Every structure is written in structure tokens, then in C-alpha cells.
Amino acid sequence: MSLNFNVDPYYDDFxxxxxxxxxxxxxxxxxxxxxxxQSQTILQDxxxxxxxxxxxxxxxxxxxxxTTNFDCYYIKLQTTYNNTNIDVTDFDNLLITNATGTVIARxxxxxxxxxxxxxxxPPTIIVSYKTGNHFQNNDVIYDVNSNLAAQAIVSGATxxxxxxxxxxxxFYILGNFVQIQASTIILDKYGKTPSKRIGLSITETIYDYxxxxxxxxxxxxxxxYQAPGADRYVISLALDTRPIQLGDDQNFVELVRVTDGQVSxxxxxxxxxxxDDYFAKRDYETNGDYVV
Length: 292
Known about the structure:
The protein is mostly beta strands. It has helices at 33-54, 274-287; strands at residues 59-63, 66-76, 80-81, 84-85, 95-97, 104-111, 124-129, 140-143, 149-151, 158-166, 169-173, 176-180, 183-188, 196-207, 232-242, 252-259, 262-265.
């Protein structure tokens, strides 16, 4: 982990060179907050040392496959419909149709309006069609299961787009096994031949009861605002992109590279560490060299 916990109010002064393997609490002696925190650090240090022998840092452990979609379509929306402002996030993952029901599509990603009116991009949804018919300019778009609606712009409303998705999975990040939920991002909003590096953005955060009210003490059967309790250390992963040119890649793990719409996976499964070298050595001693 890169966050420093040896600061107020945590004072986690764990030092692996001291070889402390247990914190031995004693009756009649006050328990220090740093001792409780450090006991977790000792256990985490043991797990990390073992896991480093099995997995390389930033390796997928289970799931986490990245897929690309160059056969999806954008629909540019008007900013209002029936005098109501359009919030494209309301359409995320919805099944949508037209007035006659001849067009059906699934919204797989959304992009809010950018810039000022008339100069930036309008609110946009990215869809995958379930039917051969597609939405056209000025079409009214309806949610299949509610009265939510929007309208495409009058000209240049649709075209091909491109997205990337990641399946739910677990990655070995910063010495921890970190879960990521399935998600989709836009590679090129108005094009199908993107050039991007796709990967994971790593964010370290300390949550307290203000970030998450569930951290309040529930001892009285409800969250007690007078008992905030302990904070939580959180590692979050999010599917993200970077330009093809290498740049500021701190806290970014590249998984797939796309150049002019051509996909080059860099990580296709778990990447093993020392144990992989052992199996390679044993295989070589048994069977010698291979020619492919």
C-alpha cells in the first residue's frame, strides 16, 4: 500500500525488520488503537509475502476479462424533452424502444453533455441494438418499462461508437486481493477505430462515517451519530483508458491496447511469480527445449 498510516490518528508504526509476528494483549492493560491497527498490518504483511510468491503485482486472480465492442452505436440526444432537462445517467443499462416498438436497443454506456450549448457535445447514449431497425434523427426514445423518454437531435444523431467492458473479478493489487465490479466505458464516443490503452485506475481512500454512515455504531439497533467508530482503508479499481503514448501511468495498470481498432491483449489470465519459474524449471529438466 502507498498510503502512510503512521500519522495521526492511526500511528501504525509497523516495522517488518523488527520481526513482530503477534501483539500480545495483557489483562489490566489498556489496549492502544495503534495496537489494533498494527495487528491487522502484521497479518496483511504475512498474506502479502505469501501471495508475492504466487502472483505478480497487478495480476488478475479470478475473472476480470476485458472485452471490446466496435459494433455499437451512439445516439445524440436533445438536452430537454417536454420541457424537462435530460439526465443521460437515467438511461444507463435500460432497454429502450421507439414509438412503434420496431426498434429495441440496450443502453450500454452514457456520456453527459460537454462544453456549452451549441459548442460542446450533446448528451449521448451508446446502445447495442436487439433489432435490425435503428433509431433515426429526431426519434423519440422511450424506456420499455417506464415513462422515461428523450429525443434524438434533428441531424447527425446516430453513428458507430466503441466501448470496452470488464467482467467482475479480483486482482492482486498493492499486496491485496481487490475486487472490481463489471462495468463498461466508452473508448471513442463517435468512432469505431479508437487508439487507447485500457486498464485499471487504482484509488486508495480512507472512509469515515461521513463517507459511509453505516460505519456509525449500531449497538442500540440504529446508527448512533454520537459513536462514529473506526475508519476504513479502501482500495478501489475502475476500468479506465490512457492515450497510446506512455505518460502519467502512476496508479494505472494496462491490460489491453487498442491501435486504430486493432486489439492487443497484454494480460489474458493470472500472471504467476516465483511458482511459475519453479514449474518452468521442472518442465525443462523433464522435457528439455521446445520448438513452436
